[in-house]
Amino acid sequence: MARAAASHSASDHPVSFDDIVAAAARIAGHVERTPLRHSKTLSEITGADVWIKFENLQFTASFKERGACNKLAQLTDAEKAGGVIAISAGNHAQGVAYNAARLKIPSTIVMPRTTPFVKVEHTRKHGARVVLHGESMTEAFEYGYALAAREGLTLIHPFDDAAIIAGQGTIAIEMLTDAPSLDTLVIPVGGGGLIAGNAIAAKHLKPGIEIVGVEAAMYPGLFSELRGDPIRVGGQTIAEGIAVKQAGRLNFTICKAMVDEVLLVEEARLEQAVALFANVEKTVAEGAGAAGLAALLAHPQRFKGRRCGLILCGGNIDSRLLASVLVRALVREGRIARVRLIGDDQPGLLSRVSKVIGELGGNIIEVAHNRLVLDIPAKGAEIDFTIETRDLAHTHEVVAGLKAAGYPVQLLPFEAATA
Questions:
Q1: 123: closest CA among 161, 91, 151?
Q2: Which residue, of 14, 284, 398, 418, has the fewest CB within 10 Å?
Q3: Would you give the end-to-end CA distance of the chain in angstroms?
Q4: Is the four-CA dihedral 343, 349, 350, 355 of positive or negative sign?
Q5: How confident is the model over 51-91, as pLDDT tens digits?
Q6: Which SS3 state, helix, strand or coil, does residue 55 take?
Q7: Which residue from 184, 249, 180 is spatially nearest to 214, judged by alpha carbons?
Q8: Closest Cα partner for 37 from 56, 60, 21?
Q9: Beta pairing partners, 184
Q10: pLDDT per residue as tens digits for the range 93-124
Q11: Which residues of the chain have pLDDT under 70?
């Protein structure tokens, strides 16, 4: 855990509460005033009193519209005519492209070549010129800066910008208007624009409120920097929206003064949180959007009894990844299991075993019949059944029932799925 300095004054920062109030007026009617809802079930699961701000209900499914709208609205006529540029592979790209089109401002978005095709197409559909360059965000940023200078484009930075920070901070005003009794805001951290803006707004409205940041364990940029540790990041995280090496310099200054603590969450908790949002709240959260809930799951004693406001900051998750996360959640809950039978390769064996599983209430999803395993007799066979059950207890009932019927089965682990 990393704790920030005790001072919560923002008087020395170039972003004030008045800036955030002005941003709220500026973007009103152009972005959604998203709902803040209490979750009885998630409160029971986590032990905290959970309130969710559904920023995934923005038009582009992310909070990034707020900052982009506020920034673009303040450009001069010359800057608007000259066009803008953003470097992003995700939500910022769509937020800038959408709002630029709405304001009739030409926009260019630089994305790495590795950006998923669906994100590229969504950005193009908003009317932006998309330039694919480089294999990483670092290379894309270098090219984007050079392109901006060459063509005279105004850069719309994803987080290290006062107008962007002020726009994001409008979320806390809405949250504390709708639920003034909140005592803790749990906020995902990537570049730091979201947490910086909301820390300023929340601490002004309610000085005693706690601001807790959450980072993916693979990308502990702010966590490490607040501790004075070397920043070491890397790896494939489900929370790619907050997979940022280092917070913006303006953002870091604000966070150091106003953020009470930064917590890290592992991938399994992020997956669990995405699945809970889908299964409990019936809403789609990307990995970064689920980070606040993941923190409550990972640190239950830290938040027990607290009135926690979570910012579900985005819902742009690849459909295949979401499907994988939901299936992996079933595995963790014991509702999908693998059962192995080694026996004589006799006609009707598969049918008889399947009949027993069905009678015990199990549903067979997949069967793998292997006669080429060398550590079993040549007349034998190894059969793996992937089955669906009600829960882990029911899985054990099915295994016990198969053994009672004379079939020597064993329950296999899903090492790859649960790692």
A1: 91
A2: 418
A3: 23
A4: negative
A5: 999 999 999 999 999 999 999 999 999 999 999 999 998 89
A6: helix
A7: 184
A8: 56
A9: 210, 308
A10: 999 999 999 999 999 999 988 887 878 888 99
A11: 1-13, 345, 371-380, 415-419
